[in-house]
Amino acid sequence: LHLKNLHLQPLTGAGEIHVASLDLKASQDLNGLWHVEHGLLTKPVIEWTRELETALLPKSESTQSTAWQAKIDALEVQGGTLKLTPTELCPLTGDLAWSTSLEALDISSEGLRSAVKQKLTLADVSLRWNPKNASVQPPPFAQAKSATLELVPDSFRELWQVESLALTAPHLAFTPENGQ
Are 154 and 114 in contact (CB under 8 A)? Predict the structure, then answer.
């Protein structure tokens, strides 16, 4: 599958996902397992809002959780950006750039599983809480010029072990003004 200028947005309200290009070789078996043999997303721009969250993750009337699973052999995301506004699932406001490289990764409703190292790189990170009834936007509580995280999901699940975490110009400030 090759798509260019993919654009998703809710029927009403703000929020969007725009992807410059998506190259994907994937399939779904008879049991519902998604299998991504290889994929490349370039320049995904995500503006995460309450409306987009509701459109993509609708609340279920059922009390039973639906089992789902995806197997990723190789997936790379290059040049992504994320802008957050507070939602039910994420109470933060902020911006960051991101990229990732995933391989031999199983994703399910139970979490991530892999014996292989995964990598996530962030840049220009600025996150702030969005307190209710705030007359002035609080300063960011977390900032970093860049952050690179490498971990093996199985080791992290079992031992809380991180292979490496490299931060450039990190700044964390937890104060009453920027706290929740």
Answer: yes
Interior/surface letters 127-140, b for 16+ CB within 10 angstroms, e for the rest: bbbbeeeeeeebeb
d(CA 143, CA 174): 12
The answer to whether the CB of 76 falls within 8 A of the CB of 100 is yes
3-state SS string over the chain? CEEEEEEECCCCCCCEEEEEEEEEEEEECCCCCEEEEEEEEEEEEEEECHHHHHHHCCCCCCCCCCCCEEEEEEEEEEEEEEEECCCCCCCEEEEEEEEEEEEEEEEECCEEECCCCEEEEEEEEEEEECCCCCCCCCCCCEEEEEEEEEECHHHHHHHCCCCEEEEECCEECCCCCCCC
Per residue in 127-161, pLDDT tens? 998 766 667 778 899 999 999 999 999 999 999 99
Distance in angstroms (rounded) separating the CA atoms of residues 79 and 99: 6
- Claim: this prediction has a pTM higher than 0.90: no
The CA distance from 94 to 73, in Å, is 31
